[in-house]
Input
Amino acid sequence: MRDWDQFNRGVIEEFRGTGGKTAGRFTGRSLLLLTTTGAKTGRPRTVPLVYSRDGDRLVVIASKGGEPTNPDWYHNLLANPTVTVELPGETFRAAATVADGAERRRLFDQQAALMPFFAEYERTTARQIPVVILERLDRSAELTQPEERSPVERQQAMPDTTPTKDDLLAALAAERRFWDALVATVTRGNLMERPGIGDAAATFKDVAAHLNDWRELTLARLEAASHGSGPPGHPWPSGLDDDTPAGTDAINAWFAARARDRSVVDVLAETAAQFDTLAAAVAAIPAADLLTPGRFASIADWLADLPIGPALLGFSFTHLHTDHEPDIRAWLRRETGTEPVLPPPPPDFGYVE
Output
């Protein structure tokens, strides 16, 4: 589990609570809050981003700290280009477009001159980092500031994040149906070990093993909750940590090396066993413990304000459906010439990694 979601929530709360004045890594930076519509869930997703200006336009860069994949918010605005922008003192609707060619190069260099870390991100990733232009829509579409909304309006704008225990078990069952259908699609095409998924040109076995490795930690935390034990150890060696993008990359590289010689049968059998054990762990935990925020802060600090059941499952689901499903679908389209037909993904309960 990576802690960027928790970090972003803290920045968003500080931005809204101080009228846009933030400390820490954003001190002295031009910062905005960008709210996109989830490409799969239809729910609002807000992230803090530094920006630059190009005349009346705002420019943001989908760097994701130089990681090999594009950030979730970028995928969201490709699907739904009307976004909400919050600046100190104003909130408005905007149209998002992706710059290309010479304009992309000019805008990227312009922002990198102000914030040199973007040039470093560009050097550390093989992908072309997207540059996004935000142009204000008609001022009649402006919104009230979040802090000016009534409590009822704020509540109505919030996604429903209060599932029941039965909802969690049903979501796990839906995730398993999706996964089984995906495996069947790949198997029918005899594609299980054909490379080409994502920027790393991974095989489906590689992606499945990677998902298993991170799901192992989710499972360990749920089992610790069901047994009343303390925080579980990480599945990776000491000396590695997931607190930074570089640390997460190192963990993923270690995971990939560990899985390299495993068979497809072994990896898929592990996935099936994990689904069984996840359902058993959720079933064993009392509903109040699963759904009460902060009940298991002793297992992970970032759970201090979150309910363990919806949070862990939501993060696990979005790891597949946001981080990897778009690349898997694109790979299947290339290899088969058709759009894969798959069941709908489970809800993420408002918890997106």
Summary: The chain has eleven helices and seven strands.
